[in-house]
Protein: ATP-binding cassette domain-containing protein
Amino acid sequence: MKPTENEIIISLRNISKRWAGKTALTDINFDVRQGDFIAITGPNGGGKTTLLRILLKLLKPTEGNVTYYRDGKPADELSIGYLPQKNLIDSHFPIDVEEVIASGLIGENLPSNKVKSRVKETIGLMGLESHAKASIGNLSGGQLQRALLGRAIISRPKLLVLDEPLSYVDKRFEHYIYDLVAELAKTTTLLLVSHEMSTIAGMANRHLIIDHTLTECHSAHHHVHYDCDD
Ligand SMILES: Nc1ncnc2c1ncn2[C@@H]1O[C@H](COP(=O)(O)OP(=O)(O)OP(=O)(O)O)[C@@H](O)[C@H]1O
Structure:
C-alpha cells in the first residue's frame, strides 16, 4: 500500500541522538501523516524506543527538530496515547488498574460521570473487569500490558504510539489486540514498534527499519532480516 496523501501531523528533521559519545540515532528524517499506520522494527539497541521518546518530546535529540502540526499549522501539542515498553514502568508504584486507565484522561477536562463511564468501558474492552481494583504490582505481565493499553486509548487520541504491544500478552489476548488495533487503525494514526515478524506489523501501510539510521521499506516482508526485501 502507498503512504496516505493526508496532511502531515509530525515531522522529524535531521534527528540525531548520542549518549555519552555513543550514537543511538543518526540523521533521521520522516513525516507522520494523518491516517498512517507505521510499523517500526529493527535490532535490539537500534534506537527504536529512543526515536519514539524523541517523537513524543519526552527526550531531547542531540540535534534536529520535531514539529507537531494541527490543521496544517505548527502546534505545541498533539493528542497522543502512548503504550511504553513494560520494562519502563515502575510496577511498585501504589496505583490500581482503574487509576492507571483513568490517568489517560488527565488534561481532558471531562465531567466525572463521563470519566467513570469511559473507565468502565475501557476496562471492559481490555478484559480487566475482575482486576479493576487490583494494584498494578499484583498483575501479571499481560494484565499490566492491557491496563497500559487501556490508558493509552481511553482519550481516543489522534495518534497512538505502541511500543511492543504484544509483549507478555498470551495467545488468546494477542488475537484480541490484533482486532482492536485493526479497529483503531480505521480512525487513529498509529505508530507501532514490533520486534518479530507479526500479523500486527503486516496491517501497517508503512514499514520502517531503525538501526541507528532509518530505512523505509516498500514491502512488509523485511522483519526477519531487518533489511528491505525490495
Ligand atoms: N538513558 C540512556 N542512557 C544511555 N544510553 C541509552 C539510554 N537509553 C538508550 N540508550 C542506548 O541507546 C541505544 C538505543 O537504545 P533503544 O532502547 O532506543 O533501542 P531499541 O531499538 O528500542 O532496543 P530494543 O529492541 O532492545 O528495545 C542503545 O545502545 C542503548 O543502550
